Amino acid sequence: MGTQKQQTRGLFITLEGVEGSGKSTQIRYLAEALTQRGYRVLQTREPGGTATAEAIRHILLTASSHEPVTPQTEALLILAARSQHVTHLIKPALRQGTVVLCDRFFDSTVAYQGFARGLDLQWLRAANKVATDGLTPNLTVVLDLPVSVGLARRRADRGQQNRLDRETERFHRKVRRGFLALAAEEPGRMKIVNANRPAQEVRDELTEIVVGWIARQRHPLRSRS
Ligand code: TMP
Fold it and tell me: How many domains does the chain have?
């Protein structure tokens, strides 16, 4: 499990999943649940989280189809955004003993740019190590559901669609396979939650997993209350 010297005081928890898996809603619920229990919580997202990283996100999600973004440009921009995010927001928060909840992180890069776009996984891992200076999540929860269900949810919410949402269903199936393969490789760090059911049920299981996991850490964070 990725516990680095730099983050000894805080805990770094990430949420992953295909489009329409409900991550953004669930991360809000989780932040509320942990705050109510007295933890200091920072909720953030990737790509994004700082002004520069959010500017990069805007380029990534809105780039014109007249000049297609190459898979290499996509990966390098995501990694550049991550370096800003890790350096200026995530690591300082972890040093202060905060529980950092991040909507997507490096597992998304492996799933999207590796499994779906076909970039070399070894290269992605090496470049990511540079971007993160070795920071890995302590716990990752994958919200899993069939791609057709997730994409239908996104289509119902047209305003939410971005450049990557508009990729083919086949592309998104590769993304899902990527997340499931990663979770099988690292069962200690990565947990899968079935997201193909009502949001309340997903929320209850997610809260139970995360709260229980925090309580089992060797140096549990003290609640503020
Ligand atoms: P979101 O819709 O979950 O906010 O994510 C924005 C998009 O960025 C989503 O389509 C997935 C994509 N993405 C990657 O392709 N690779 C990455 O490493 C990350 C963090 C996001």
Answer: 1
48-88 pLDDT per residue, tens: 999 999 999 999 999 888 999 999 999 999 999 999 999 99
224 located within any domain:
no
pLDDT of residue 220: 59
Q: For residue 221, is it within any domain?
A: no
pLDDT value of position 162: 84
How far is residue 80's CA from residue 179's CA, in Å, rounded to a whole number? 22
Distance between CA atoms of residues 104 and 28, nearest Å: 14
Does any domain span residue 220? Answer: no
Whichever domain contains 180, its CATH number is: 3.40.50.300
Determine if ligand 1 sits within 6 Å of the CB of residue 112: yes
- Non-local (6+) Cβ contacts of 143 within 8 A are 15, 16, 17, 21, 22, 23, 26, 193, 195, 202, 206
Ligand 1 centroid distance, CA of 47 (Å):
6
Asked if residue 104 has its Cβ within 6 Å of ligand 1, the reply is yes
128: containing domain: 2-215
38, two tokens: 């007295």
Give the residues of the chain that fall short of pLDDT 50. 1-7, 225
Closest CA to 123 of 132, 113, 133: 113
How close is the Cα of 98 to the center of ligand 1, in Å?
24
Stated pTM of the model: 0.94
Question: Do residues 96 and 40 lie in contact, with contact meaning Cβ atoms separated by under 8 Å?
Answer: yes
For residue 222, being part of any structural domain is answered with no
